[in-house]
Amino acid sequence: MTPQEILKNTFGYDTFRPGQERLVNAVLSGRDAMGIMPTGAGKSVCFQIPSLVFEGLTLVISPLISLMLDQVLTLKQYGIRAAFLNSTLTPGQQRTVLTRAAGNAYQIMYVAPERLSAPSFLSFCQNHPIPFVAVDEAHCISQWGHAFRRDYLQIKPFLTSLPQRPIVGAYTATATAKVQEDIAVSLGLRNPVVQINSFDRPNLYFDVARGNKSLELRSFLHRHANDSGIIYCGTRSDVEEICDSLIRAGFDATRYHAGLPDKERTENQSDFLYDRKKIMVATNAFGMGIDKSNVSFVVHYSMPKNIESYYQEAGRAGRDGSPAECLLLYSAQDIRLNEFLIRHSLEENKELSEQEKAVREAHELELLKKMSFYATSTDCLRMLILDYFGEHIGPCGHCGNCDASYEEVEISARLRLILSSIRKMEENHRSFGRVTLRDFFKGSKSQSIINKGLDRYYGYGALSSVSAERILQIIDWAVQNHWLRAESGDYPVIRLGQIDSAYWTAEDEKIIARLPYTRAEREKQQPKPASRGGLFESLRALRKNIAAEQHVPAFIIFNDATLIDMARIKPVTIRQLLSVNGVGKIKADQYGQRFIDCIRDYLEENNN
Ligand code: ADP
Ligand code: ZN
Questions:
Q1: What is the arithmetic mean of pLDDT over 164-174?
Q2: What phi and psi, each to the nearest 5 degrees, are found at residue 551?
Q3: Does residue 502 lie within any of the structural domains?
Q4: Domain that holds residue 474
């Protein structure tokens, strides 16, 4: 069978995704290969297809022990003979796996890097044909990567110790050139075919909300009522608080952070994986190696410290290629918190000299600045992310900023009021952040306003009829246009910017600003996004039942992209079913009839 036929027959996919075919062919023609592709691009089939073609056993080296079981279950669903060998198995089970492997029971085997130095494993490898070794998460070999693993340095000596050096493939989602070079050198790749994909993830919709976080979150979750997703929080106590409040409001949420007992953490994780709970509220400890493919959204309740972390976490949405949404909830507080965390973790660091700390601090603050820019900019969000990774595109037309419609607003009087109030505050040697100013102009009676004595200042409540969001927009606009300036530092206060002295007396100057429609206005204008529809939900329910019978996570049966395609095509014969993207022969034989019955029922009920 050709790689194309294997892709169709075994995996059920009609066409290769960008880069996959080239990497598969490289390996099949005997060349080493290196695949640099973003999360969700489909790196696995790049080494799984060759493993089905080669005689002998393909080894996949991966650091993610907790994932191996799922990966092997997934492969078994495709009818592939797969196994894993790691410390979660008892010594007896490990021996059984090796004995069976020696009897050619498997085509592909997942191992953790520390396995490469175990004598029993080495002696097996000396005596069994190993045509191909795939190194997954290959960035772990680089000290410059974000997940260095000393064990990965054993891979190269392992390869050369084999009677015949296998073909080697390295796969990663890490983008920097330095890491790429390290991978090739440290693994001893020989003239590899290098495939570097775009880091764009067209199915992800990026958005930033700058209003009240808990209200924004509620309204977002209501729009995604049937979807499964992750909410990342900056601290454990935020996780607790938000998870509790969501549960109280009737959402189907669970939580994950390093402070929970192991047992509870594992349980919550599998509740989410197996779709028993729809929403996971977690710190960034959650997700390393979670490859649940049907995550429909990732919300960040607080801003991460750089774009790379953000993209990696947000990128856990939509891995199967179906549409997914990534929302960042922003407040200026987030900048301060991150500055504090950066400084704090450097102070704690005992390995670096003072000078090194200073360099590192400057570097991290610079990265934080880019992240803050992303959070506050009105430019295309996708453009900002890809810029960061060195790819340059135009506005994408498919993100919150591209979609935000703007209106021309006459703000002369409101701006004048804001500027003169801030001038009066400065005369009294006082200055405040943008949120405090907003609350002040809105006339808030909050404790913090009263405590600061702000309710006695000129301008207090003077914009009470203007929406809080619009007040912030005007302040932000004034900063961008240098009427005001935002000071950096522990407390980013707003001060007067470059204002011509004539301005104060020229009462009639007319100022027009281009401001985004406020969220309330936008929600009025836009129809609610269409739900994926009744049939999709029925198919999803069926998938859930089958997954429960088989004791596997639902996405291992079929991923969301496949169900969406199935709901669109509405196949009523096995033949038609095979034309659905993601339905291969084995799965069609096993579950096809039940899905077809489900579709027939649906069509009948809707007399069609
Ligand atoms: P990565 O390891 O690059 O993050 P995976 O290998 O986990 O990505 O693949 C992500 C998802 O894409 C999986 O659900 C996989 O089945 C699906 N996929 C892979 N290749 C294709 C393809 N050619 N067409 C459609 N879907 C694919
Ligand atoms: Zn855009």
A1: 93
A2: 55, 45
A3: yes
A4: 406-516
